[in-house]
Amino acid sequence: MESDYLFSSLPIKKVEGILPEIVTDLAVDSRAVNAGGVFVCIKGFTVDGHAYVQKAIDQGARVIVASDTVNVDAEKVAVVYVEDTTRAIALLAPRFFNYPSKQMTMIGVTGTNGKTSVSNMLNSILQQAGEKSAVTGTIGFNLDGVLYETENTTADVLTTQRMISEAVNAGCTTMTMEVSSHGLIEGRLSGTEFDIAVFTNLSHDHLDYHQTMDNYGHAKGLLFAQLGQDLAQSKFGIVNADDSWGRRMKEMTPFPILTYGVHEQADFKAYDLNLTAEGTSFQLRSPVGEFEVSMALIGEFNVYNALATIAALFAKGLEMTEILDGLAVIPAAKGRMERVETDLPLTIYVDYAHSPDAIEKAIQAILPYKNRESKLIFVIGTGGNRDRKKRPIMAEKASIADYVILTTDDPRDEPYDSILSELEAGMKHDQYACIGDREEAVRHAVSVAERGDIIIFAGKGHEDFQIVGKEKLPHSDAKIALDEAGKKFGEGIVEK
Ligand SMILES: CC(=O)N[C@H]1[C@@H](OP(=O)(O)OP(=O)(O)OC[C@H]2O[C@@H](n3ccc(=O)[nH]c3=O)[C@H](O)[C@@H]2O)O[C@H](CO)[C@@H](O)[C@@H]1O[C@H](C)C(=O)N[C@@H](C)C(=O)N[C@H](CCC(=O)O)C(=O)O
Ligand SMILES: Nc1ncnc2c1ncn2[C@@H]1O[C@H](COP(=O)(O)OP(=O)(O)OP(=O)(O)O)[C@@H](O)[C@H]1O
């Protein structure tokens, strides 16, 4: 790209050296710089990118964008000084990729719980309807069926723009993005022009970062504000009418809002819910008539996720029959109340619940189908060096289960003791164990299980690792549980 065009997007303080006519690439990580590229020094939470300028130059950087003084050979490398490099990359990245989000229908999904579930439902139905589409989020970047790993739920602004651009180049016509509150606050969505904004719900999480629920709710609202003010365009907000924060989202945009819910008045309202262990059905009242909806997903929370999906795809212009046919055959998203297939005399679910509300919803999805004689065993851990306030509330919600195992979920540098004692403070009954080592905790869950019992392993979901200290160690709740259960209930019983 021509550097004059690229850098004219910036409020520049000063340029040292001569800018090349063309720059080949844009990077915020010195390790990713290509010859002839631009390296933007970002001041992060842990390190300052200004410290990596020499590395970037060694990799071939031709231009450095900095806010602090950097020493370079002005004959070879130009330096563009700006006040704030984080704001600079937010302007440069969308321009470098030629504002790719304008070329597709962009759907953003935000909320405390349900982002991955709703995003994957949207993507699956779109693909079944014959559309080439992409989705990004906690599980990764799924580009028309091929999955690439991502670091965050919402990637940094440069990676985000690169992914959108790749989706456009691959011929996708819609892209769905999970939008985290961190991503919105940190400007990772700068330049992403959304057409449809979806709000699932808001409950206690991430208060180590946002401090108050008000700040957290405000951050989520930025997605709706980001729909913009160009009313010549056709855009929509999709909002959960049963969540009081839904009204706040509505205040953030002038575009039409479609509401969904089970209890309050809503454009898409579910009633006569039939929740079973095998699947879910309900009646749907919609702006275009009444429908019977059925799906293989379980739990009332998935009724909400389905309603959000239906409303968003309706707003996009799909026929109701296309939407409901697609919904009927969707499998659970990886690690979201996913039943582990086995011949063992136990029912095992792997789930990603790691906020108080999600824990309550996950247990409630199963509790009604449990026999009187059997136990529901719930394994829940919490992360080290993260939101400590939610720990006792997580255990309090987990107390609805008959037996609870409190453990860790990426303990990082925090000792087991503080994680476990803060969880334990919330327990409402004495049928529980505290076991810091997650593998031991999983084995313990199986050791206390009897034939017919149900175990939910919560918190890890799709993840196949456990972060201990700075190390990412391989870990699978399902594999460990099947191994232990195989030993306990007899040889020859294998995972299907
Ligand atoms: C607190 C936070 O948001 N941290 C994010 C932030 O990291 P950071 O500021 O620490 O970055 P840094 O490591 O200090 O690096 C600063 C700069 O130096 C550069 N660098 C670094 C090393 C080097 O050798 N060369 C180099 O150039 C880096 O590329 C970067 O540009 O920027 C990184 C790149 O974008 C993110 O991956 C990282 O997310 C961390 C992993 C994280 O855990 N974030 C959580 C809090 C988060 O964002 N979660 C949300 C919500 C999930 C949910 O809803 O559950 C999410 O969207 O994932
Ligand atoms: N609509 C919902 N309301 C409450 N709980 C939900 C809802 N949808 C899913 N859950 C629960 O929350 C867990 C996480 O779901 P999901 O991954 O879809 O949410 P998320 O918003 O993407 O989470 P994260 O931000 O941590 O990636 C699920 O495993 C389930 O237990």
From TrEMBL:
Which cofactors go with this protein?
Mg(2+)
Start and end residues of each Mur ligase C-terminal domain: 335-461
The domain of life for this entry's organism is Bacteria
Question: Which EC number(s) are documented for this chain?
Answer: 6.3.2.-
Where is UDP-N-acetyl-alpha-D-muramoyl-L-alanyl-D-glutamate annotated to bind? S30, N152, T153, T154, S180, R188
Instruction: State a single Pfam family of this protein.
Output: Mur_ligase
Modified positions (N6-carboxylysine) are K220
List localization entries.
Cytoplasm
Question: Part of which pathway?
Answer: Cell wall biogenesis; peptidoglycan biosynthesis
Q: Which residues bind ATP?
A: G111, T112, N113, G114, K115, T116, S117
* GO MF entries: ATP binding; magnesium ion binding; tetrahydrofolylpolyglutamate synthase activity
Q: What is its main location?
A: cytoplasm
Q: Could you tell me which PROSITE patterns the record lists for this protein? A: FOLYLPOLYGLU_SYNT_1
Question: Which Gene Ontology BP terms does the record give?
Answer: cell division; cell wall organization; peptidoglycan biosynthetic process; regulation of cell shape
Domain (Mur ligase N-terminal catalytic): give its ranges: 26-95
UniProt's post-translational modification comment states: Carboxylation is probably crucial for Mg(2+) binding and, consequently, for the gamma-phosphate positioning of ATP.
> Which GO terms of the cellular component aspect does the record hold?
cytoplasm
This protein's record includes keyword Cell division: yes
Functional description taken from the UniProt entry: Catalyzes the addition of an amino acid to the nucleotide precursor UDP-N-acetylmuramoyl-L-alanyl-D-glutamate (UMAG) in the biosynthesis of bacterial cell-wall peptidoglycan.
- The name this protein carries in UniProt is UDP-N-acetylmuramyl-tripeptide synthetase
Query: Quick one: which gene encodes this?
Result: murE
